[in-house]
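Before a colleague's protein record goes any further, I have to sign it off. What it holds is a sequence and that sequence's fold in C-alpha cell form. My question to you is simply how this chain folds and whether the C-alpha cells agree. Thanks in advance; the entry in question is below:
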Amino acid sequence: MTMTGLPRKTLHLTALAVPLAGWTLHTTVLHRRLTQAQRDPLTGTWRREAFTSRARRILHRHPDEAVLVLGDVDRIKDLNDRYGHAAGDRTAGGR
C-alpha cells in the first residue's frame, strides 16, 4: 500500500502535536483562572487564603530577612455612602 501526500513521519508528528497543543491551551487557561481566583477582582490584591499561604512560605524560607506589614483602611463604608463607590475604590487602591 503506498501513501500519497504526507510522509508517515509527518503524520505521526501531527498526531502527537494536536493533542499536545490542546493540553497546552487547557493548562494555560486553567492557570490563568486559578490565578484570578486567588486575587480580588476589584483591587487586584491577594485574597486571604492566597496571601496567607504566600506569606507563610516566604517567612519560612527567610525567617531572619522577611518583614510582614499589614494595613487596614477604616471607614471605607462611610466614604462609599457619602461619595459613592468609585471614591471608596480609589481610596482603597482599587482600579
About this structure: The chain has a mean pLDDT of 80. The CA atoms of residues 30 and 51 lie 20 Å apart. The first helix runs from residue 8 to 37.
